[in-house]
Specification:
heterotrimer, A mainly alpha, B mainly alpha, C alpha/beta, A: mainly alpha, C: alpha/beta, 10 helices, 12 strands, about 30% helix, about 25% strand
Amino acid sequence: MTVLSPQRERGRMARVFVGPTVGMTIRRALFFFMLFLAVVAPWLDDFSAWLPFPIYDPLRPDPFNPVSPPTAEHWFGTDTLGLDVFTRVLMATRVDFTLALIGVALGGGLGCLAGAWAAYRRGWVDMVALRIVEVLQSFPVLLLGLAMFAAFGSLEIFGPVDHGMAVLVLSISMVNFPLYLRQVRSVLLPLTEAEFVQAAKCAGLGAWGIVWHHFIPNARGQILALFPLTCAYAIQIIAGLSFIGLGIEPPNPEWGSMIKAGATLIVQGHWWVSVFPGAFIVLSVYSLTGFSARSETLVGPGGTSA
Amino acid sequence: MVILAVVLLAVVMIGFTITRSTGTPLYASLGVAVSEAIIEQRAEEMGLNEPIVVQFWTYVTHLLQGDLGVSRISRIPVAEDIALKLPATAEMVFFTLAVSFIWAIPLGVRAGLRPDGKLAKLGEGMAQFGVSVPAFWLGLLFIFLLYFLPPRLPEPLGPLPSLFPPPLGRVGSGVTPPEMVTGLYTVDALIAGDFRLAWHTLWHLILPAVTLSLTSGPPLFRVTRSAVSEAVSSPFVEAAYSYGLGRRTVLIRDVLRNASPPVLNLAAMTFGYLIGGGVLVEVVFSWPGIGSYAVWGMDNSDYDVVLGVVLIAAIIYVILYFIVDLIQFAMDPRLRD
Amino acid sequence: MSSGPANGALLTLSGVEVTINTLSGPVHPLQGVDLEVYPGETVGLVGESGSGKSMTLRSILRLMPPGGAITGGSVKWQDRSVLDLDTDELQAYRGADVAMIYQNPVSALDPLLSVERQIVDAFKANRETSDGVAEEFARDALRDLEFGNPDVILNRYPHQLSGGMAQRVNIALALACGPSLILADEPTTGLDMTTQIRVLDLLEQQVHARNAALLFISHDLRAVSRVARNIGIMYAGQVVEFGPRERILTDPSHPYARALLECMDLRTGERPRSIPGLVPRMTEEYELCAFRDRCPSRMAVCDEERLPVHELGRRGRLLCHLGPDHG
């Protein structure tokens, strides 16, 4: 009897950077470049002398230079307060990436465990899990976010954590939980009867032991394929909610709220305030698709139409 | 059927929990600087001191009677407002799907039949673009590119937008909407026999519909592509050719028929999803639908409004889910046994 | 190689080559297939999986998988070249002249259409007629195929049929086209033993009742010898030996055919053995004999010269350096 669980060997690190096609490798490089910018963004100011681009304080207005079009001093121009759009877009990369990552990791992690549990126990546990998935997925994503903000409207329960950010993260988790649950469950369901699981049972491994040591590793490929897609999706949701004023309060830099700030300017022909943050959303989502081997999208209620 | 009821009940319970968990409606409607006595009195009036089960029962019975509460700002029942605004959203979603059926489905069929063709690459490119770009930003970009980027016309004509205002809202300012029959302006205008108005309302629909279609169409394209390519490589398609059936016959009789269930399924899901998922595009194009209404409620801390919209969208979605099941059932003999 | 003379043959394949371009490079499933089928006769083709049996049938109908093309040789139907037919002519040729029965009977039926609809469509695709006549034909055909209650079966959908029933429906579909030649691609492989025999007998009986020819392929020499009068042995995309059933079953010349006989244990009654060595890779184009690495009678000439074609009297053929008269 085969008692080894398949797919347990680890991929090499290089695989993360080099994709199966040239296009995907380029997209990955783009992603890591943006990630790098997001990580170092707060310290860029200290090194401004070495940077090819001028960098500013993202929160200090310049009343003498409002709504300036892109120039050598302000690569992406300035907004109504004279804030430098370029600096703010970089800082926003940090905010959006972080929130997306935490939200997806939280909701996705719980979803994976719940999915594995449902696949292992089957029966009524599976039934309940599926119904939860259906209920959660019957709310359009943005409305779910709206409802979350309505529910947590004035409940100050997050202590020192920023209220808006906390609710954003929770909304992202709520969206991702059913996606991961469903995916992991469908991968693992056929495995319940697999020989190595039976062998593990015979060897006296407990339920959580089996879920942890055999189920989760076998779903790893699926989870890793879903992860970049859901992160990209999360970025769009965060930006979308901020666009209607939920989550990150201006003047804190965030792509969605920056687009909103620029929306009134764009109809006066001052395009740069909205266009650059939007372009960064597109770039980040596009670069994340470089990690997904299959060209698939999240479909239906989990679909991307933020 | 039972599952449908369970899901609906759960949706309603979540809605109920959210309203009660906020604890804010009283402050929101009365303002913060009111005495404890007044709050207590209002709470009594609103039944907030009843046991939670009784409150839930009241909530459900009201819901069943179509009572979603009253907007605290406009004092109009939420259900009435939603009934007024739902047709606007529905019209936008209808046209979005129509646009998707024009590009996503044909390209998907073509890509499924000829995976290496130019049209397949075009479709995949559009899909890549559509999933990467946020709809609200794309909408803004369209408005800017089409109306504010073109150079000013020579005096005395002045800037373009003052001559051709961008088509925001359901009708331009100063245009009277058609008499309400279905609530869909294009249809109502046709019913009234006013073709100019029908064209005008259609004109206002195009941009939001194209924007939403570009961003919600990619899954439709990809599902169509994979369904068609799966169908076309099935043994029964080869068999059909070997019996001497023509290319067109096989395409319609076997390939498209077998590929259509997942596509129809997704189209219905997209419809249900866009009812609530087009919020941001509604905001960008000043479209007076339920999405804008929910955002308006959110801005004013008018949570019954938000909740009403959320519930209605979820219920529509669940019902569509059920209808899709019925359609699948009718189409696929395998599901009937 | 014979060049397909107008010798009364219904179907003549000569030197047919097929290349399929896959992601991992080209594959050559057929590397020069020669074969004739005469009116009303039954021909069997035997070979391991991957020897090109199914591809031979597909090349006859010009039904190529994605990336596949007939890259050499000729396929003649009577005296017309099948490879030169245009789309309309090809459509007319398929079904009306040659029809095919598939290996997996359930998946060869459209899951969303009733049995009646599928038979009627196949019937009408090949002649000018009315629905009524077609329905009448469908009912009769099912009765001929020993369905007790044809009307019930007509209203069924493929998933409601057992494997044996589905295969009989497939036979009805092929018969509905009214062909002069029926191709059968391992038609009994998925069925259990008793059903296999029944389906085979019905197939043979119906084909003969309609004066059609049958080209039957299988990896199972037993099944082939049950129906075919002439048998071809395929190896690595070629028909390496062809001849009357009696000779092939008792005294084949090709070493591979002998090995096949031995391992199928038709003569000895001993336990089946396997042929030593590896199945040929069809990514390679074989200039020389493809069997020589496994051949017990390998000679120096096998590594130097291309395979000779020995014509063995009336309708026999051998592709081997040994020639027909050894051992």
